[in-house]
Design goal:
single chain; mainly alpha; 3 strands; 67% helix; elongated
């Protein structure tokens, strides 16, 4: 969290200098940008390798952001090269005349690829916007970790405990399924109180049924949120006894996903029929500033605003356990039981 803020601050300082030079000294701007741009591109090319190296040194925390690791890698390379350039000039290994010749060649190189000042301005604006997305994604990662509260106050916790026990008792299923629910919510209460609270707060009941509504596809759905009934329906496969921690993790993941649908429906006054709230969900859960979570998503059934939010929520949940999202791979834990 603090690391993301530091990275954002350094990014802002670098870009403030670049934009200032663009207005006051174009030749110096070209020289500075000629350092920044190749470092940026090389960092993209060697991102996986640099991410591996950095992961041996730094602890990336609960939600390691892909863009956060990218920014850290970039800043390490950029500062190293910038210091090297400063050292070369300080020791006078490179004269002013040679420096000017280098700048002339750099300007010639830009002229070769971009033939007019207007085209250069457009290309620079696009590149600047890409960097803004990186900074905003860093900020998004910071807010996400900051909001991931792991503490339930006593009164709220007590009310949730009472509600979930009432819901479990009222569930029409065998005792095995009810025991699975109790085990899983006890697990969630310990490892992720925020998910525990979200599921219980926005779910009114649990249902076990082999029937799939006619408006849903006939395959792949093993659980779904029923609106406006505010219930989560599971296939009978989850009524078999759980025998591992994996069962609880992936069962929790399903509930986190479906509870996100219920939460959005409840908080956004029925987003299905409210176009403004639906647009809001698309903006909040868009795949651009949240792409560190979308990089792990391969099997979303319907990729729209609310489904984006649900998919993001389950990827975040799994990251706590260093589990990468794989398309339906988790079903093996239940099929093997």
């Amino acid at each position: 969290m603090i690391g993301d803020l530091i990275l954002i601050f350094i990014f802002v300082i670098i870009w403030q200098r670049i934009l200032k030079l663009k207005k006051t000294n174009f030749r110096e701007f070209i020289f500075e940008f000629s350092i920044y741009f190749p470092v940026f591109c090389l960092n993209l090319i060697f991102f996986k390798f640099s991410s591996f190296v950095l992961s041996l040194i730094f602890d990336f925390g609960l939600f390691p952001s892909i863009v956060g690791v990218f920014a850290l890698s970039f800043i390490v390379f950029y500062i190293t090269i910038r210091f090297f350039v400063y050292y070369v000039f300080k020791k006078k290994h490179l004269s002013s005349e040679k420096r000017e010749k280098i700048i002339n060649k750099e300007i010639g190189l830009f002229d070769f690829f971009i033939h007019s000042a207007e085209d250069f301005q457009k290309a620079f604006v696009i590149f600047f916007l890409i960097n803004l997305i990186i900074i905003f994604t860093l900020l998004n990662s910071f807010i996400d970790v900051f909001m991931h509260q792991r503490i339930l106050n006593y009164e709220n916790s007590r009310a949730l405990d009472i509600k979930i026990e009432r819901m479990i008792v009222a569930t029409k299923s065998n005792e095995s399924f009810k025991d699975n629910l109790r085990q899983t919510f006890k697990f969630l209460r310990t490892v992720d109180p925020r998910a525990y609270e979200k599921i219980i707060k926005h779910t009114d009941s649990f249902v076990v049924s082999s029937d799939i509504p006619s408006n849903l596809p006939t395959s792949d759905f093993v659980a779904y949120a029923s609106l406006p009934a505010m219930s989560i329906t599971f296939k009978p496969i989850f009524a078999k006894p759980f025998d591992s921690l994996d069962d609880q993790i992936y069962f929790s993941m399903l509930m986190v996903h479906e509870a996100e649908h219920l939460k959005n429906f409840r908080e956004n006054s029925g987003f299905v029929v409210n176009s403004l709230n639906y647009i809001y969900l698309k903006i909040r859960c868009n795949p651009i500033t949240n792409y560190q979570y979308f990089s792990n998503i391969r099997g979303a059934q319907h990729m729209y605003g609310d489904e984006w939010c649900a998919q993001i929520s389950e990827v975040k949940f799994l990251k706590q356990f260093n589990i990468h999202y794989k398309e339906y791979y988790w079903m093996k834990h239940f099929e093997d039981n």
